[in-house]
C-alpha cells in the first residue's frame, strides 16, 4: 500500500498538470484507500510530497474529481498537524466557493473539509474571516435543506463561530433568525434528531453571544427581538432551552449597562423561579447556568441591594447542600458578589452558622481548587464587608481562622490581601477569642515570611505590619513576635521605595520598641 501511495502521489502531480481526468481519479481513489487504512501515515506522505498545493486546481463544481478531492481534504484535516498546511496551500477560498454548488455530494464533502480545517485552528479562522463563508452558510441554511445537510452546516458553523470576527459576520448575515426558527420548529418534538437539532441550534446561539460586538448587536438596548425570544426560553419546560436561556442571560450580562437594564426589567425573578424548579429536579447544568447569570448581574453596585431585596441570597442558599463542584463554585461567587459593600447582607450571611460551617468544609476541598479559593474569599469577604464582631465570632467558632492564615500565603496577591485585611479585623474585634487559633495556625511565622520575602507586594507588607501591631495585645503572640526579631525586619523596611510601606514600617518599629 505504501508503494502504491507513493506511486499515486507522483502520478497525481503529473496527471493534474496534464488534466487527465481518468488518471487523476484513479490516483484519488488510491489516496482515499491509503487514508482509510492509515490516516496519519498517509497524511504525512501527502504533506511530504507537496500534494496539497496541487489540490485547489482540482476543486471545481464542474469537475467529477471534486467530491473525491474534498473528501481527501476532509480526511487529512482530521489531523491537527495537517490543518495549517491546508490553509497555507490555499484550499479555503475554493472550498468556500463550492458552497454555491448544487451537487449534494460535493456540498457534503466540502462541508466536512471546511469543518475539519477550521476545527481548533486560529490561522484558518482568520482566513475564513476574509471570505464570504458566513453569507454562504446562512444562505444554505435558509434553503430548508434536509436534516443531514443541516448537520453538515452545523459542523462547519460551530468551530467557525468561536472567532469573534466571524461571530459578527454570522449575526449580520442573519444566522440568529435561522437558529430561532430551528428552535421554534423542534422545541415541542420528542424525535431524537429534532432534540439534537434543538441542542445544536441553542448552543450555537449562546456561542454567538460570547463575542462582545455580536452580543451587543443582539441586545439592542434590551429591546431586541432576539433578546426577548431568548428570555422566553427560561420559563419553558424544556431543560435544554432553560439552560440556553440562562447561559444567554449570563452572556448578555457582561457589561454594567446591560446588567442594570436586565435587573430593572425583572429578569432576576425569572432566574429565581428557574432555580426553585431545580432544587428538587437537580439539573446541575441548569443550576450552574442560572447561578452564573445571577453572579454576573450582581457585579454592578446598584444591582446588589435590588437583588438582595428580591431574595437572591435565600434562593442561592438552598443549593448549599449540593455536592457538585461547578454548582458550589458559582454559588460562592454569587454570594461574594452580592455582599460586596453590603454590610447588612454580610452580617446576615456571616452569622449563618450552617453557611460558615459549609465554607470551612469547602476550604479543605483540595481536589477542587476553584471551590477552595472561592470559599476562602467568601469567608474573608463576610468579615471585611460586615466589620461585625458577631460575624468574627461565628468564623472563629466555625474553625475558619486557620484557613484565612493559609490564604495569606496564596500565590494570588489579591487573595493574600483579602486574607490579611480579614485577619486584621479579627484581631481588632476579638483577639482574645482568636488567640488560640492564631497561635495554632502559626500566624506570626507567616507574617515574618511575608515581610522578609522580597517578592511580597507593597500592599502585603503594609497589611502584614498592621496585623503585627494588632496582635501585640496577646501575650503568647507578643512573645512570638519578640522571638523572631521583628524589629530588625521592620527597621529594614523604613527605606522601602514605597512611601506608604516605609511610613508604616516607622510606626510599627516605634510600637514594637515601646512594647519590647
TrEMBL record:
Keyword flag Electron transport: no
Sequence ranges of the ARM repeats: 90-125, 266-312
Pfam hit, one: Arm
Record-linked InterPro entries: ARM-like (IPR011989), ARM-type_fold (IPR016024), Armadillo (IPR000225), RAP1GDS1 (IPR040144)
Gene Ontology terms for molecular function: guanyl-nucleotide exchange factor activity
SUPFAM superfamilies, alphabetized: ARM repeat
Chief location: cytoplasm
Gene3D superfamilies, A to Z: Leucine-rich Repeat Variant
Cell compartments where the protein resides: Cytoplasm, Cytosol; Endoplasmic reticulum; Mitochondrion
Keywords: Cytoplasm, Endoplasmic reticulum, Mitochondrion
Signal peptide: none
One GO CC term, this protein: cytosol
The UniProt record lists the keyword Cell cycle: no
PANTHER family assigned: RAP1 GTPASE-GDP DISSOCIATION STIMULATOR 1
Record protein name field: Rap1 GTPase-GDP dissociation stimulator 1
Amino acid at each position: 500500500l505504501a508503494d502504491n501511495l507513493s506511486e499515486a502521489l507522483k502520478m497525481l502531480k503529473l496527471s493534474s498538470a496534464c488534466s487527465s481526468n481518468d488518471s487523476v481519479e484513479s490516483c484519488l481513489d488510491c489516496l482515499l484507500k491509503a487514508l482509510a487504512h492509515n490516516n496519519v501515515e498517509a497524511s504525512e506522505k501527502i504533506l511530504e510530497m507537496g500534494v496539497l498545493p496541487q489540490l485547489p486546481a482540482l476543486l471545481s463544481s464542474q469537475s467529477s474529481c471534486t467530491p473525491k478531492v474534498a473528501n481527501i481534504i476532509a480526511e487529512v484535516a482530521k489531523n491537527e498537524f495537517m490543518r495549517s498546511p491546508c490553509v497555507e496551500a490555499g484550499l479555503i477560498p475554493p472550498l468556500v466557493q463550492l458552497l454555491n454548488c448544487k451537487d449534494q455530494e460535493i456540498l457534503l464533502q466540502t462541508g466536512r473539509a471546511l469543518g475539519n480545517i477550521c476545527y481548533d485552528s486560529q490561522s484558518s479562522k482568520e482566513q475564513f474571516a476574509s471570505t464570504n463563508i458566513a453569507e454562504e452558510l446562512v444562505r444554505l441554511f435558509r434553503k430548508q435543506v434536509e436534516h443531514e445537510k443541516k448537520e453538515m452546516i452545523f459542523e462547519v458553523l460551530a468551530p467557525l463561530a468561536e472567532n469573534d470576527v466571524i461571530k459578527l459576520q454570522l449575526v449580520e448575515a442573519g444566522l440568529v433568525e435561522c437558529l430561532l426558527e430551528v428552535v421554534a420548529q423542534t422545541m415541542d418534538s420528542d424525535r431524537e434528531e429534532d432534540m439534537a437539532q434543538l441542542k445544536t441550534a441553542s448552543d450555537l446561539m449562546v456561542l454567538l453571544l460570547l463575542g462582545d460586538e455580536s452580543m451587543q448587536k443582539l441586545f439592542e438596548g434590551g429591546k431586541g427581538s432576539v433578546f426577548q425570544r431568548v428570555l422566553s426560553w427560561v420559563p419553558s419546560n424544556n431543560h435544554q432551552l432553560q439552560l440556553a436561556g440562562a447561559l444567554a442571560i449570563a452572556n448578555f450580562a457582561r457589561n454594567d449597562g446591560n446588567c442594570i437594564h436586565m435587573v430593572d426589567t425583572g429578569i432576576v425573578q425569572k432566574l429565581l423561579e428557574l432555580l426553585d424548579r431545580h432544587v428538587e429536579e437537580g439539573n446541575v447544568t441548569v443550576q450552574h447556568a442560572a447561578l452564573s447569570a445571577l453572579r454576573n448581574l450582581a457585579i454592578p453596585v446598584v444591582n446588589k441591594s435590588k437583588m438582595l431585596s428580591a431574595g437572591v441570597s435565600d434562593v442561592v442558599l438552598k443549593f448549599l447542600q449540593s455536592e457538585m463542584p461547578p454548582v458550589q463554585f458559582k454559588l460562592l461567587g454569587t454570594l461574594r458578589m452580592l455582599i460586596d459593600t453590603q454590610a447588612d447582607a454580610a452580617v446576615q450571611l456571616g452569622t449563618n452558622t450552617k453557611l460558615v460551617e459549609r465554607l470551612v468544609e469547602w476550604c479543605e476541598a483540595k481536589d477542587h481548587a476553584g471551590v477552595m479559593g472561592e470559599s476562602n474569599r467568601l469567608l474573608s469577604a463576610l468579615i471585611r464587608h460586615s466589620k461585625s464582631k458577631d460575624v468574627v465570632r461565628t468564623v472563629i467558632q466555625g474553625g475558619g481562622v486557620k484557613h484565612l492564615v493559609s490564604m495569606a500565603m496564596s500565590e494570588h496577591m489579591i487573595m493574600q490581601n483579602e486574607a490579611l485585611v480579614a485577619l486584621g479585623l479579627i484581631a481588632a474585634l476579638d483577639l482574645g477569642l482568636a488567640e488560640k487559633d492564631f497561635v495554632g495556625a502559626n500566624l506570626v511565622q507567616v507574617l515574618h515570611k511575608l515581610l522578609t520575602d522580597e517578592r511580597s507586594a507593597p500592599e502585603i507588607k503594609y497589611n502584614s505590619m498592621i496585623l503585627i501591631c494588632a496582635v501585640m495585645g496577646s501575650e503568647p503572640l507578643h512573645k512570638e513576635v519578640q522571638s523572631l526579631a521583628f524589629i530588625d525586619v521592620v527597621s529594614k523596611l523604613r527605606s522601602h521605595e514605597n512611601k506608604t510601606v516605609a511610613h508604616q514600617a516607622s510606626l510599627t518599629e516605634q510600637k514594637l520598641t515601646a512594647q519590647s
